[in-house]
Structure formats: structure tokens, C-alpha cells
Amino acid sequence: MTGTLWYVVHTRPNSEAKADFNLRRQGFTTYLPRYQRQRRHARKSETVTRPLFPRYLFVELDLAFDQWRSIRSTFGISQIVLAGDRPRPLPVGVVDEIRARESETGFVKLGLPAGVKPGSKIRLLDGVFADSTAVFEQTADDRRVAVVLSLLGREVRVFVAPESVATA
User: Fold this and answer.
1) Residue 16 is part of a domain; what is its CATH number?
2) Residue 141 pLDDT grade (very low, low, confident, very high; cuts 50, 70, 90)
3) Of 100, 131, 151, which residue is a domain's last?
4) Average pLDDT across the chain, whole number
5) Has residue 25 been placed in a domain?
6) What is the mean pLDDT of the segment spanning 133-148?
7) Which of 19, 30, 86, 99 is in Cβ range 3.0-4.6 Å of 11 for a Cys bridge?
8) What pLDDT does residue 125 have?
């Protein structure tokens, strides 16, 4: 396989930033998607930055030219995700899709895909109703959205996480 593709690297616990730094220092192109959330503790609220995928980051490689085996001995890295004895590439477009959800500050905006509004046909990505199509009804709160599913000949309202929704 030739050409540059994105691959997944598994990091040690809480070492995503360290692994990202060390890979970049070695000349690799990496992507560590992060998001911000509000954390409340002891009557204080603060904004914290978290990795979108805890213990994972992405590295861009051309297996024909890059010395990818050195990734396994990089500080902060647990392993590179393999298929047999070679790194397993991400499907084309995954990193671009995540980057398209970033705000101007560089953090991934969690929530609904662009263009989803009440009445839109959507597809559920995970959970009991994974791969089911539904109709987006409304945003219930900051952690749930209401969708309408057709089950056993009737319409049922179900609440799911916004990140579990994709356009149909």
C-alpha cells in the first residue's frame, strides 16, 4: 500500500499529549482531537480540555517510506493498532470529518452533525438502535436529543446522546 494514510496509536493512560509531543519531535505528523467541557467541583465551575478519544491519537504515515516501527518505543505510546504485523489504516476521510467539527479555537464541537434540524432524517450510530433510521425531533438538553423511531408499527420517542446521531 502506498501513499499517506492515517493510523491509530494507543497511548499509555493520561499520556496523549506526551505521546503527541514525542511523535512530533521525531518528525511524524499527528492529530490529537480534543474538546472542552465544563467541570463542576466544590461549587466551582471550570473549563477543562480532554482528548476526544482517551488513550488514542492519530499519526499520518506512508508505510513505504516512514520508519513506523520506532513509534512503538516512543515515550507515552503503548502500541500502534495493527492488522497482523502491519499498522491498520483508518478509513479515508475519518480525520477530515473530525477536523470539520472543530471550532475556530481548534477544539472539536460535540453535538449534532451540521444541517440536522427538527424533521431531518438521521441514523443512529450506537446503542440498542444502532443503524436504525429515525427523525430528529429536538434537543432535550446538553447531553440528550429526542428522536422518533418507528418500532412495531408505531412511532416512539427515544433520547440519545448527540454524538450518536449521523445524517441519513
Assistant:
1) 3.30.70.940
2) low
3) 100
4) 87
5) yes
6) 82
7) 19
8) 80
Mode of pairing for the β-strands spanning 133-139 and 121-124:
antiparallel
> Which domain, by its residues, includes 70?
5-100
> Identity (one letter) of the amino acid at 115?
G
Give me the pLDDT at residue 168, please.
78
Kindly tell me if the per-residue pLDDT of 13 is higher than 50.
yes
Pair 63, 141 in one domain: no
